[in-house]
């Protein structure tokens, strides 16, 4: 198991209240020994003008789930910040559908973490693949 902070899904969702995460409707939905998932229902808050999930929102969902997963993998007194994200948009998702993002670690180092995040539609078809790099930061520093 990779978790150093035993955060529940309820705690993660409470932590994100009154932020861009809750404004977009992102909710943490499942967690395993080495992965974390969040969901997003595609609505007017996250669509581009043609009625599909906006690519920037896909990246925001990926960064959200990857960053909170990374935060759960560092000791007390440390947090993580994103330093780089890239996302490949593989298929469109229409308004009214739900997207699930699953983050799994590629590397959990002392100063750097790399997370792989795949977004799936309701038919479990991959619609986006992202890679997120996080810096591990000491709260005192």
Low-pLDDT segments, ≥5 res: none
CATH topological fold name: Thiol Ester Dehydrase, Chain A
Morphology call: globular
Q: How many domain units? A: 1
> What class do helices, strands and sheet pairing give?
alpha+beta
User: Could you give a short account of the major beta sheet?
Assistant: 6 strands, antiparallel
GO molecular function: 1,4-dihydroxy-2-naphthoyl-CoA thioesterase activity
GO cellular component, one term: cytosol
Protein name: Thioesterase domain-containing protein
Keywords: Hydrolase
Task: Explain what this protein looks like in three dimensions.
The protein has 141 residues and is of the alpha+beta class. The chain has a single domain, classed as Hotdog Thioesterase (Thiol Ester Dehydrase, Chain A), CATH 3.10.129.10. It contains 3 helices and 6 strands. Strand 4 (98-108) and strand 5 form a beta hairpin. The two termini are 28 Å apart. One of its GO terms (molecular function) is 1,4-dihydroxy-2-naphthoyl-CoA thioesterase activity. Belongs to the thioesterase PaaI family. This is Thioesterase domain-containing protein. InterPro entries: HotDog_dom_sf, PAAI_dom, Thioestr_dom.
């Amino acid at each position: 198991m990779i978790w150093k902070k035993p955060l529940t899904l309820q705690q993660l969702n409470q932590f994100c209240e009154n932020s861009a995460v809750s404004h977009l409707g992102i909710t943490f939905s499942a967690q395993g020994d080495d992965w974390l998932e969040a969901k997003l229902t595609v609505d007017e808050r996250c669509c581009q003008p043609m009625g599909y999930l906006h690519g920037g929102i896909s990246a925001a969902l990926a960064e959200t789930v990857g960053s909170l997963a990374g935060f759960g993998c560092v000791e007390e007194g440390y947090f993580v910040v994103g330093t780089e994200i890239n996302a490949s948009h593989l298929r469109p998702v229409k308004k009214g559908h739900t997207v699930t993002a699953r983050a799994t670690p590629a590397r959990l180092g002392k100063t750097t973490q790399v997370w792989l995040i795949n977004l799936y539609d309701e038919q479990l078809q991959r619609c986006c693949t992202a890679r997120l790099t996080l810096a591990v930061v000491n709260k005192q520093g």
